[in-house]
Amino acid sequence: MPPATARFEDDKFAAYGLPNGTFRSLGLETCTSNLAPKPCSSGSLPLVVFSGALATSRTLYQSMLQSVAAAGYLVVSVDHPYDADIVELPNGTTVTGVDINDSELEDALTTRVKDIAFLYRQLTKPSLRTKLFPMHHHSGGLLKTAIFGHSFGGAAAAAATQQLSFVRGGLNVDGTMFGSVLESGLDRPFMLIGHDNKTQETDSSWKTVWPQLKAWKREIEVKGAAHYSFSDLPLITSVIGLQEKLPVEIEQVLGSIEGRRMMDLTVTYVTAFLNMVLRYGSEKDFVRADNEFTEVVVVT
Question: Quick one: which H or E segment has residue 188?
Fold first, then answer.
């Protein structure tokens, strides 16, 4: 995490029992472009846009998104200013979040979709793409794109798939849905991933939207998972040897699945969906995933 973000998140998560300085002490191992002898691809890698939970920094998903990128995607995660708890700009300026109440969620959702549309327009400029992805050869043209999001980001993924013609499919990870998608649905592939006991039976927005999903669709439930299981937090608590020692209230937020396995599960299902939508149109990766992860219940 950039420095101000790390300080902010350290203070925030100290309340949950993470040792002070956790985020300042953690880094990701990454490949830098100056080490690569040749560009990684001659074709155009598909684009995946990620939108996180309300009041949550995109940096809380970095490891997960790194693994998704490693499956052969250009991944761009979005911080929505005033919506994320903190946004740190390259010049060090920070924008802290505001409390968004229930009556403001529709406006916040509209703003997120506009952010994603703006981002895509920027990424269609070759000069910017070259700057962001210097080791990737671009064969021009618009990028094949899918979108996924966690929590409120899952609602944004649904809204963006509905409203933005360039999105080929969307994946909602554990997010209640809002807005016009509930009435008019989607004609592109869409998937729902829920934590333990988050299904159409317990989330009325999922039940409402399901019959309106007119293309390929799938819903899974992950037994033992909680809402923030679908972030880097379980992995972080596992890596620093804390997962077994956290208070029981934290399990209600992070779930009971071991952190490395939970990360593997999330990445496996996300990439299975992306591979189907953006690569080869078959469900073969889901068959393998369902066999490997006994925690997963295919709801429908």
Answer: none
Return the residue matching tokens 């924008």.
95
Q: Residue 286 is part of a domain; what is its CATH number?
A: 3.40.50.1820
What is the chain's length? 300
Summarised one tens digit per residue, pLDDT across range 133-183 is 877 765 555 678 999 999 999 999 999 999 999 999 999 999 999 999 999
Mean pLDDT of the chain: 92
d(CA 93, CA 125) in angstroms, rounded, equals 26
- Whether 31 is covered by a domain: the verdict is no
pLDDT digit string, tens, across residues 187-225: 999 999 999 999 999 999 999 999 999 999 999 999 999
In sequence order, the β-bridge partners of residue 127 are none
Q: Look at residue 1 and tell me if it is in a domain.
A: no
Does residue 174 sit within a domain?
yes
Structural domain harbouring 181: 43-298
The contacts of residue 41 (CB under 8 Å, 6+ apart) are: 72, 136, 137
Distance of alpha carbon 61 from alpha carbon 194, whole angstroms: 17
Closest to 179 in 3D by CA, of 124, 85, 107: 107
- For residue 62, CA distances in Å to 3, 240, 283 come to 15, 17, 26
Question: Distance (Å, rounded) from C-alpha 20 to C-alpha 273?
Answer: 37
Structural domains of the chain, count: 1
Band of residue 40 on the pLDDT scale cut at 50, 70, 90: low
Kindly state whether residue 24 falls inside one of the protein's structural domains: no
User: What is the C-alpha to C-alpha distance for residues 198 and 227, in angstroms, rounded to an integer?
Assistant: 9
Separation between Cα atoms, residue 255 and residue 266, nearest integer Å: 13
* 3-state secondary structure (DSSP) of residue 173: strand
